[in-house]
């Protein structure tokens, strides 16, 4: 019996490449669709099949699904920079929302029924309490979160009308690296790799955006979840879709760390010091985002292997030291 084929959009990206590697390890055949506006060819695990195209090319995408007899789609292709989304919201609604709609329409054309969607904790906005559970009110405070929420709202209609089975995975701060694959965005906007660039002397300082939040040390608190743990959750959701659809899970460690705590963790792991400066708050940044992942732990048996910020930072530092210029390094 031939292995099932999974199509991974954005499979050359940070999370998509790690998910693709885990799919291959589990015996699936992987077809990666990426336009390489942000992805890295060096991140793609062998022996993935690669189709270079834009997800908004619905007809070509449907053709690829039919050509490889795709059984399910895992959708990671999206823009992720919160700050940019508040300057260029149209870019995010076009790529993230309309792009996902194109993928869904291609699935309907090609009669592919299972869809795993990479969503975000940003759909919750400023929650009234923490930890955040799946049934809490959805009030994004930035265009990035809204662009993802609009996709979430489409999915029940595609289930009801076209018979799709879908999973929405709302994850918190993806972080950490594997020995083979690391976080390498251009420009980089995520906290841990930015701090590491400061530790390596690649940037003169690290900025803290706001020190007057209602938190113990005044800086934002986030829930960091290792990219390997995110990937394993996607595979569990993919397998569950064989039985039922309309899945919804938070993915987080359940522990919150402030910006200052993460800075200190990098100092401890790297053994290096660096300059830290204070700047004004960024628009759309919630004070605290910490997940309750009790539902996916209970229903799918998911358990993160990396549960402390020090473990996550150590894995990120190991890859960064070996790849100081990211995938561009010789």
Instruction: Please identify the top-level CATH class of the largest domain.
Output: Alpha Beta
User: What is the number of E strands?
Assistant: 13
> What is the count of DSSP helices, taking H or I runs of 4+ residues?
10
Q: Which bin fits the share of residues in helices?
A: 25-40%
How far do the termini sit from each other? 40 Å
Domains, number = 2
Structural class: alpha/beta
CATH architecture assignment of the largest domain: 3-Layer(aba) Sandwich
Uncertain residue segments: none
In CATH, the topology of the largest domain is named Rossmann fold
Order of H and E elements: EHEEHEHHEHEEHEEHEEHEEHH
Task: Look at the structure and name the CATH superfamily of the largest domain.
Answer: NAD(P)-binding Rossmann-like Domain
Query: Which shape, going by the Cα principal axes?
Result: globular
Radius of gyration: 19 Å
Describe this structure in words.
With 330 residues, the chain is of the alpha/beta class. The protein has 2 domains: 5-175 and 224-251, Rossmann fold; 191-222 and 254-328, Alpha-Beta Complex (UDP-galactose 4-epimerase, domain 1), CATH 3.90.25.10. The protein is built from 10 helices and 13 strands. It has a 7-stranded parallel β-sheet with strand order 3-2-1-4-5-6-10, sandwiched between helices. Strands 7, 9, 11 and 13 form a 4-stranded mixed β-sheet that branches. The protein is globular. The model has no long low-confidence stretch (mean pLDDT 96).
